[in-house]
Acetyltransferase (Denitrificimonas halotolerans), 219 residues
Amino acid sequence: MSKFTGTPKPQLAILGASGHGKVVADMAELLGYACVFFDDAYPDKQTNEVWSIVGTSADLYTRLSEFAGVAVAIGNNAIRAQKLQELQNLGAVLPCLIHPNAVVSQYARIGAGSVVFAGVAVNAFTQVGMGAILNTGCTVDHDCRLGDAVHVSPGANLAGGVTVEDHAWVGIGASIRQLATIGANATIGASCVVLKNIPADAVVVGNPAKPLQKHSSAI
Ligand SMILES: CC(=O)SCCNC(=O)CCNC(=O)[C@H](O)C(C)(C)COP(=O)(O)OP(=O)(O)OC[C@H]1O[C@@H](n2cnc3c(N)ncnc32)[C@H](O)[C@@H]1OP(=O)(O)O
């Protein structure tokens, strides 16, 4: 007598066997996927905790038809954007993965290849581009505009009408005042409080946000 095994789970390939990748895989399993990793450290590295690494990024590009979807778990915003673009050009399916315990308004839009982790809230009429990381417990309030491959780190809070341009990184626990704009590729340091617009490529820290100064001298 054959044993009933149920419907096979859809397979998700995750590019990047990182710590971030573990969180993506854990969430994807909750969403019903079975996960394997691809990473250029293969074959020297063959596991990422409980998950198998089965090939390099080049291997993934030749095996896309085997997968129901591909996630890119690379924290660097520019590299993640580049890999997502290459995968999209090859016809890969890039699902937007939203944790069951995230709260996303029915009037919000989040782009392909984005991940939204546990405890996140995204409020009405916010739009998020492709390949975003909305990390654990961050909030993105109403009418925000987030570009492609942005990262909002754990516990960061964006008030209403904030703009975050492509590839910008909002650090852990940062707060962004309503209607402020964070320029492309900018970095907002951990716990920073942003009250005014931040130009592209800037690195700012503190309360209120100021450009990062490195002033350690030899002790
Ligand atoms: C799940 C996850 O883990 S997601 C990842 C979450 N992580 C984050 O959000 C981290 C965000 N990154 C930061 O805050 C970083 O410190 C950055 C990007 C702002 C600066 O990094 P670096 O360029 O490496 O700066 P570095 O560590 O050398 O520090 C330089 C100076 O700035 C100070 N500094 C660095 N970050 C901050 C900050 N967030 N607030 C205040 N001062 C800071 C340092 O104390 C140091 O001061 P000193 O020169 O007087 O000693």
